[in-house]
Amino acid sequence: MKIRENVAISTLTTMRLGGNARYVIDIEEDKDLAEAYHFADEKSLPTYILGSGSNVIGRDGGFDGVILVNKLHGIYVIDSDPAKIRLCAKSGDLLDDLVEYSVKLWNGESYGYSGIEALSKIPGTVGAAPVQNVGAYGQEIAQTLHSVCVYDCRDNLFKHMMADELDLSYRHSIFNTGDGVGRYFISSVTVELHKHWLKPPFYTSLQAYFDERGVTEFTPQVVRDAVAEIRAGKLPDPAEFASAGSFFKNIYLNEEEAEEAKKKDIPVWDGGKVPSGWLIEHAGLKGKELYGMRVSDKAALILINENAKNYADLARARQAVIDAVKEKFGYTLEQEPMELGDE
Questions:
Q1: Does 30 lie in the same domain as 16?
Q2: What is the pTM of this model?
Q3: Which of 22, 86, 171, 316 does the annotation list as catalytic?
């Protein structure tokens, strides 16, 4: 087990902000977990679980604790029948690698199993997917999640938890709420996919992509390629541009609120969802520079760290966006990425 001291959080997260972490431990095998948590307990230090760092904002004060960096890897088939398949992926694998694996498998009739192909190119690890119940283009991990294997640091043992035990909803699970925060280290994730292709109508931008190109055959690979191209044209790559991916959650309205929004020509999608990116753009902020952060000119939901000096700069930029949307539309945006460290 490798232990590092005084590591800059900015080097571990894609927004590239944050002070030093007192200790960082790379978790490369399941057996490292008990030892790592024992190390933290002996020193009476808190722990924080980190994957690729694409949905985490580092604070300037650093973290006086132990960051556990997830480097568990491996994707394999558990079982299958003529209609479906179960795949297990270690939590440190990239979610996009699992998607790629699933669309290239032979299903007995053609290549590819369906269920997560619209999650292509989402930055982050497999382990992060249940935590935030990640979703895109009409799919979310809750629709195919079968179970997870976790290390429970309170009880000091591994457990299997079924999907219906995880309280999954929009960007919500037991892993990011209440007593579950920090209690569980997700070791692996099992998804159940099927061989039936998706059918139209698709999510608005995906449907437009297919209509413009006359696409009528929707294999998992075709959907994956389309989503990848759409995302490449709209969303900056965190590896190239310092960002945390989608920065604000979408707004959800009840039926009465949705009707009022439609009267004001505010787009309301299925389920009462108002896209926050639309609100930010129509508040006049798309492409604007704010305290060293730039609202992406491709997708206003993204904040890019161009030359912000610290977390305080990001906080000022975030508040400027929240205030502008609140003033124009009356909605209060909420940050999506989690935060790590002291201010």
A1: yes
A2: 0.92
A3: 171
Q: Are 110 and 225 within one domain?
A: yes
Task: Spell out the per-residue pLDDT of the chain, length 343, in tens.
Answer: 889 999 999 999 999 999 999 999 999 999 999 999 999 999 999 999 999 998 899 999 999 999 999 999 999 999 998 899 999 999 999 999 999 999 999 998 889 999 999 999 999 999 999 999 999 999 999 999 999 999 999 999 999 999 999 999 988 999 999 999 999 999 999 999 999 899 999 988 899 999 999 999 999 999 999 999 999 888 877 778 899 988 999 999 999 999 999 999 999 987 899 999 999 999 999 999 999 999 999 899 999 999 998 999 999 999 999 999 999 999 999 999 999 998 7
Shortest CA distance to 285 belongs to which of 250, 328, 315? Answer: 328
The answer to whether 246 is a known catalytic residue is yes
Distances (CA, A) of 211 to 17, 106, 115, 207, 208: 41, 27, 22, 6, 5
Please confirm, yes or no, whether 336 is among the known catalytic residues.
Answer: yes
CA atoms within 13 A on the CB side of 167: 9
List 117, 140, 192, 336, catalytic entry = 336
Whether residue 143 is found in the same domain as residue 247: no
Tokens of 179: 């007593």
Structure tokens, 276: 């926050």
**Domain boundary, last residue among 195, 213, 232:** 232
Q: Are residue 96 and residue 172 in the same domain, yes or no? A: yes
One domain for residues 10 and 83: no
Residue with tokens 């609140």: 326
204 and 62 housed in the same domain: no
Q: Is residue 201 reached through a cis peptide bond, with omega within 30 degrees of 0 on the bond before it?
A: yes
Give catalytic status of residue 91 as yes or no. Answer: no
Of 246, 276, 281, 296, catalytic? 246
- Could you give the residue ranges of the DSSP H alpha helices within the chain? 31-42, 95-104, 128-132, 204-213, 220-234, 255-263, 276-282, 311-329
